[in-house]
Design goal:
The protein is mainly alpha-helical. The chain has 2 domains: 12-74, Winged helix-like DNA-binding domain superfamily/Winged helix DNA-binding domain (Arc Repressor Mutant, subunit A), CATH 1.10.10.10; 79-221, Four Helix Bundle (Hemerythrin (Met), subunit A) (Up-down Bundle). It contains 11 helices and 3 strands. It has helices spanning 12-25, 37-44, 48-60, 79-103, 106-122, 128-145, 149-170, 177-182, 184-192, 195-204, 207-224; strands spanning 34-35, 64-67, 71-74. Helix 7 packs across helix 11 (207-224) and helix 9 packs antiparallel against helix 10. It is globular.
């Protein structure tokens, strides 16, 4: 268990959940790691009820699971989980890109260009966590720019799992600079207001890395079977 920041007594379950979430998404806790309530209570200096509430929140986000008799564990994405997320992202991101391209205004273009530049700048370094976060924030902005409130609500339900998925896909790039470059055609289509192209590119985005991740996860599962 990595050393986590102690939570102030005023923070309670939300602050505890925030720290645990970032630790899980950034890979600070290995998939399948056991989360012991007593240890977390001591480490965070909060009550058992606060820890329980934080874990329930993360359970709702799909980041932790509770198994009878063994307790809480960090989610370990299976090949089927990755397949579901990959295909669901294609649908949601495709629709979001089309709508964003069709409705983008001057302010939206500025925000999109700024987010893309942040991603490209971040990719010049070797901070995988920062790259994955910048990657996710760009895609989340496209969903926001769609102006579709119900689409945004559905995206929020799985956004933490999507962050884990994006981080896993980004991990497969030999050169992190390629992560920024692969977003360029999509960003150009959005800035040009080309809904058809934006939707197609968003649906195809990271398909190679997504398929490779699914195949990689299937290997140990096939050995067990």
């Amino acid at each position: 268990m990595p050393k986590l920041t102690e939570v102030s007594k005023q923070s309670f379950d939300v602050q505890t959940a925030n720290i645990l979430r970032e630790t899980i998404v950034s890979g600070g806790l290995e998939p399948g790691s056991r989360l012991v309530e007593a240890k977390l209570t001591e480490q965070f200096k909060v009550s058992r009820g606060t820890i329980r509430a934080a874990l329930q929140k993360l359970h709702g986000e799909g980041l932790v699971v509770q198994t009878p008799y063994t307790g809480w564990h960090v989610i370990a994405i299976t090949a089927h989980d990755a397949w579901e997320l990959h295909n669901l992202r294609r649908v949601l991101d495709g629709l979001a890109a089309r709508l964003a391209a069709e409705h983008i205004d001057t302010e939206g273009r500025k925000r999109l260009e700024a987010a893309y530049q942040r991603l490209c700048l971040t990719c010049t370094g070797n901070n995988q966590k920062a790259i994955a976060n910048a990657d996710f924030e760009l895609h989340k902005l496209i969903v926001v720019l769609s102006g579709h409130s119900r689409l945004q609500e559905h995206y929020m339900l799985i956004e933490q799992q999507i962050r884990v998925f994006i981080a896993s896909c980004d991990d497969q790039y030999a050169d992190y600079g390629g992560i920024g470059l692969c977003h360029e055609p999509l960003v150009k289509a959005l800035l040009a207001g080309d809904g058809d192209t934006a939707e197609q590119l968003a649906r195809e985005h990271n398909s190679t890395q997504g398929d490779a991740l699914i195949s990689r996860l299937r290997l140990p599962e096939q050995r067990i079977a």
